[in-house]
């Protein structure tokens, strides 16, 4: 990593930034910038809470936002927001050490979300995610932000599409931007939308970085039981299919762009009303 015998921390951060401009420009920064433009994720005058969970995706997102800020194409502000939902001391320390080494000036606040969901048996991860997002929205608004940025990437998107079909009986995707239903005037954006997870791992490994996985007690117990989650099962399905046909992943992604409403049995309009194919028969 950047510890014993390695580069001084300030120089290490500069080394990482140079890597984003050179070695990893095409696969990381260019795709980051493309998603921002293509999905209209940012506007001049934005104050964005870059939500840093401590994992590889959000830490990279923070560095990419810093690189975008360095280009200074238009005025915007950044707050690098870390929520501690009940991490162990060693996990919180790891986040703080990584942020310092990478030159990310984090703002940390605490909550008791892990404790609140620890006794929930049904869908604890789903409930935890919703509570964490709500807490991030609330803190971001308190800090004067109008947007929060999350580190979901391309692979998260295609897995969500397939999970919805296989386990939810629905066709849906993880949207690149979403207006908050509960925090008026605030928007969630996903600028890592076009970046592949393999390229994030390549960046992490090239610089010898070590980041958090999901660090809650439930996840640790779940892993110990060796019972795979639905997302892990879908990851494996996609891996097997992609090994046979490299175009599979792109086709899953594109399926959410190429929906032909004249060839589906029913769909929900923007108000959530179900519309059947025969309603326009007259």
Itemize the secondary structure elements and their pairings:
Layout: H1 9-21, H2 25-38, E1 47-51, H3 56-71, E2 77-84, H4 89-102, E3 106-110, H5 113-117, H6 124-142, E4 147-149, H7 154-168, E5 177-179, E6 187-189, H8 197-206, H9 217-224, H10 230-244, H11 248-255, E7 266-268, E8 274-276
Parallel strand pairs: 1-2, 1-4, 2-3, 4-6
Antiparallel strand pairs: 5-6, 7-8
Helix pairs in contact: 2-3, 7-10, 7-11
Would you kindly provide a written description of the structure presented here, covering whatever features stand out?
By secondary structure, the chain is of the alpha/beta class. It has a domain at 9-155 and 172-212: 3-Layer(aba) Sandwich (Rossmann fold), CATH 3.40.50.620. Helix content is 49%, strand content 12%. It contains eleven helices and eight strands. The strands form two sheets. Strands 3-2-1-4-6-5 form a six-stranded mixed beta sheet, sandwiched between helices. Helix 2 packs across helix 3 (56-71). The N and C termini lie far apart (67 Å).
**How would you name the oligomeric state of the polypeptide chains in this document?**
single chain
Biggest sheet layout: 6 strands, mixed
Query: What is the H-and-E element order?
Result: HHEHEHEHHEHEEHHHHEE
The structure class reads: alpha/beta
How many helix segments? 11
Number of strands: 8
CATH architecture annotation of the domain at 9-155 and 172-212: 3-Layer(aba) Sandwich
At the fourth CATH level, what is the homologous superfamily of the domain at 9-155 and 172-212? HUPs
Low-pLDDT stretches are 222-226
Kindly, what is the distance between the CA atoms of the first and last residues, rounded to a whole number of angstroms?
A: 67 Å
Give the CA-based shape.
globular
Question: Taking Cα atoms only, what radius of gyration do you get, to the nearest Å?
Answer: 20 Å
CATH domain fold name of the domain at 9-155 and 172-212: Rossmann fold
Mean pLDDT: 89
User: Helical proportion?
Assistant: 40-55%
Specify the CATH class of the domain at 9-155 and 172-212.
Alpha Beta
How much of the sequence lies in strands comes to 5-15%
| Strands in their spatial order, largest beta sheet | 3-2-1-4-6-5
